[in-house]
Specification:
Blueprint lengths: L20 H7 L1 E10 L4 E8 H15 L8 E6 L3 E6 L2 H9 L1 H11 L5 E6 L8
Parallel strand pairs: 4-5
Antiparallel strand pairs: 1-2, 3-4
Length: about 130
């Protein structure tokens, strides 16, 4: 019989404690979100922004761009490489937001032309951060 494969499992000793989720989320950085530089020289510099700030900015942008009845029901926005996932409070608001997809697509294209896909989903219960 073959030997059992070894498990690649991290062990935490008394000196190394696992990091808290909020600490990990704050340390994640999204590169390439904004560019700054001198247009005259053509030099540009990529500025890193924390992912949480980027999500908050997108959420507020979408909330302000949509109808006053629809905007407040956007629970969260997740920015991925070339897509944005918009989370709503319930399935009913998810459907209403999908019907307003043309308006959302225009706002997204105006803000960032690199985004090619917008997905609307329902936020799992108990995880909305309003």
């Amino acid at each position: 019989m073959p030997n059992k494969p070894t498990r690649d499992k991290r062990k935490f000793g008394p000196k190394s404690q696992p990091r808290h989720v909020s600490e990990l989320m704050q340390s994640i950085v999204s590169i390439g979100v904004t560019r700054s530089g001198n247009p005259a020289t053509g030099a540009s510099q990529v500025v890193a922004k924390p992912v949480a700030n980027v999500s908050l900015e997108w959420r507020e942008t979408l909330r302000n761009a949509l109808d006053p009845e629809l905007g407040p029901h956007i629970a969260n926005v997740l920015v991925k490489a070339r897509e944005i996932v918009v989370f709503t409070e319930s399935a009913a608001w998810c459907t209403r937001l999908k019907l307003a997809m043309g308006q959302i697509s225009q706002v997204v294209k105006a803000r960032d032309a690199g985004i090619v896909k917008v997905v609307v989903k329902v936020m799992p219960a108990g995880s909305a951060d309003r």
